[in-house]
Amino acid sequence: MANILVVDDDVAIVTLLRFLLEREGHSVSAATDGQAALRALGIDSDGAQAKLPDLMILDIMMPVMDGATFNARLQAHPAARALPVIVLTAKGKKMRDLFQSSPNVAAYVQKPFDPKMLRDLISGILARKV
After folding, report:
1. What span, in angstroms and rounded, lies between the C-alpha atoms of 2 and 27?
2. Which residues are registered as beta bridge partners of 30?
3. CA dihedral 99, 101, 102, 103 (to 10 degrees)
4. 111 backbone φψ class: left, alpha, beta (φ>0; ψ -120 to 50)
5. Assigned CATH topology for domain 3-129
6. Are 14 and 30 in contact (CB under 8 A)?
7. Of 32, 37, 49, 62, whose CB count within 10 A is highest?
8. Are strands 27-31 and 3-7 parallel, antiparallel or unpaired?
């Protein structure tokens, strides 16, 4: 199955996603903000080799580094720019517009979300990657 990185500062969301995705056989890691995610991926200022998951689920509103800034950093990294991202946020259409020009954003899901719909969406995105 797939390696999935969840980047969200809401512990309840991370716990729910971990439960849902691990039940489907995926390996799940988590980061609480964009800066922590950059470190986890090896995309930080020390030039480390990127360790990319198969898919990322990304919140927008987070402390330290928000999702939009983090995604811009992904787009600037040659190895990471094609990493598929699902933007998962409580913010409305205005936030969706921030990501319209990001080719790596595979989907935009608003909180609260239907877990079955998200699971099916993830399966579809991963199937296209193969």
Report:
1. 6
2. 6
3. 140
4. beta
5. Rossmann fold (3.40.50)
6. yes
7. 37
8. parallel
At 56-71, the pLDDT tens digits run: 999 988 999 988 899 9
Contact 126, 53 (CB under 8 A): no
Helix (H) or strand (E) holding 29: strand 27-31
10: which 2 tokens?
């809401």
pLDDT tens digits for 15-37?
Answer: 999 999 999 999 999 999 999 99
In the chain, the amino acid numbered 43 is I
Instruction: Output the six-digit token pair for 70.
Output: 């983090």
Using CA atoms, how far apart are residues 124 and 67, in angstroms rounded to an integer?
Answer: 23
- Residues 6 or more apart whose CB falls under 8 angstroms from that of 49 comprise 42
Amino acid at 75: Q
Average pLDDT over residues 106-113: 89
Tell me 27's DSSP state. E
Q: Give the global pTM.
A: 0.90
Strand, coil or helix: 20: helix
